[in-house]
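Input record (one chain):
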Amino acid sequence: MSKQIETQQNFNCSDNEPFSSVLARHVSRRDIMRGGLSLAALGMLGGIGGLNLANAQESGTGKTPLALAFESLRGSRTDAVVVPEGYTAQVLIPWGTPLEDQAPAWHREQEMTAEAQARSVGMHHDGMHAFPLSEQHASRDFLLALNNEYIDQDALWAPRGGPTNPDSGQRPADEVRTEINAHGVTIVRVRKQAEGGWSHVVGDAHNRRFTSATPMDLAGPVAGSEYVRTRYSPYGTRTRGTNNNCANGFTPWGTYLTCEENWPEVFVNRGELNIDDARLGLPTERGRYGWETAAGVDGERDDEFARFDVTPHGEGPRDDYRNETRTFGYIVEIDPYNGQSRAVKRTALGRFRHEGCWPGKLVAGEPVVFYSGHDARNEYIYKFVSDAKWDPADANRPGEAYDRLALGAKYMDQGTLYVARFDADGGGEWLALEPDTRVADGRTLAAALSLAEGDRAGVIVHTCDAADLLGATPMDRPEWGTVDPSSGEVYMTLTNNSQRTAADTEPTFTNEGDGVDAAGVGYATAPTNAANPRAANETGQVIRWRERGDDATRFDWEVFVFGAAADDADNLSGLTERNQFASPDGLWYDDRGDGQGILWIETDNGYDGVAEQTNDQVLAVVPGALSHASGQASVVGAGNQQQLKRFAVGPNDCEVTGIFATPDKTALFINIQHPGNWPADADAATQDATHVTSGSVRPRAATVVIQKADGGQIGV
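The corresponding structure, as predicted from the sequence alone:
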């Protein structure tokens, strides 16, 4: 999530042992304070990579590792994107860029309307993915699907001097509709031009928006259940909109996955909260933008504003919107190729504040796996395993028209949802969130949640409480994940945790609870553990794990790199001025073939120790180079930290997020979210991203395309 909209509140009141306590048992407090690592810690941190190195040596198949071929950048604090010498950076599809011929052309004083925003690129770009229209032109002509996470009301309503009644009183209907349409997802066709630059295709049949008002279907265990019946959908099969979509995912059959993260904040319940909504932190006075206050205005259509107030007032759920929030908190599947298809919320993958959703290693005849993190302090990491086995015949066929969402139903509507427990010995276990799973006191999970026997829909609605009861490990805000498609190793960023306390402290709990066995109660604070070893963790870390081939419910884990300022006492990875970072967020494993690749790390930093030296950034490291370095562990440490290089720096006040490369690896796409005074040209849809802004401009989030001036592959 963007630091601009994150809540400092902790919603997990469970007393499950947090990740930081587990990891702290491997890293002594004395060694942390002096910036060193104990032998036990080195053994744990280097576990997975050590096995890789040993296997390569024994088999005689060791390769010359991939090498990064650019100088690590110095920090930057300017209103411009900074890239290495020999590279270019171009702005593409900033907020407000028209998608249709009927949409107005952008200009710096444009007053956005609901209609114009629905036909233009949404606000605050985040996760994204490319979908080729043909194999032949996959690197120069494709559909770009990107999330529009949230809005900057000051920039949106700049011509009016700001929003009307943002904090109290009734909001105008026209402003609310416009803000609703600025959220969601944008699908847009982009092309590389003959001279090497990029542009979007206005009026292409694939271009479309999904907003916080777009009708969508519910699928999986929760669909059709009593939990999601509303006045809008009495049978619980439909809902409207997707909201606060942060990171993303994709499927091997060619669909886009967008993930609902900070969705609770746009709702309000002024009455008694459902325990699942209380656990997720639903507001009780006013929604973030006050959309519910426009209810009842002349011209309101189908309760378009009333649905954001979920306070019960009718005789039952079909008379009001008490269940509206239970239609949010899911992974949403979109077919970018079919402009007439409806988005589908895949409820089997759990209900919480999803950061993203990433497919695991794909093996014919084996289940399809997806990983997801709950981005909040002291929350959990999840895995979904399909019942259906992967059939390579279902792989995406670019350019062909067929029902990709039917394949989504095949692989994503039936399966098992697991939550992770990380153990201090470097192992871990996936705990099944099934109604008949036994909790610590011997009851079934359904009984412990006060649900009917076999109520899988209820377990999904109460995902967080279910994970609490199973003893999952609370983490330091799980953000983005990525998978090495060759080894199957999974990387995930743990961005930071201000609510992490020292190892010898007792946890505290939300909603006046005294433990996680109470319904609707989560952690307020949690002590350190092995995987989250630093109290008041301001700088975060990246972890890595590998599934055990002989047991689908077990895995082995390690810390890949710790964030820190170069002069921090707990700079456990030995970072320097050229690669210091904090709050790792975006993450992508860039497969370069032959079992090798580049791990790209993006940041959303608010830690002064690093922020005083540089804006948010993109870093790169070749994990294979670390695994094959003689005498070093397969993690970033003092002996090999020079392998981690700063590749790009964003403009002032921004977050750098969203990332992928074209198949030929000649263009790297990133997103610049919530810049303070950028791009330099307030009117242009495409421009040089490295130009420093002169004076003040109306800021616009945008995609940036980074290429080598000589047309070569990025990074190498």
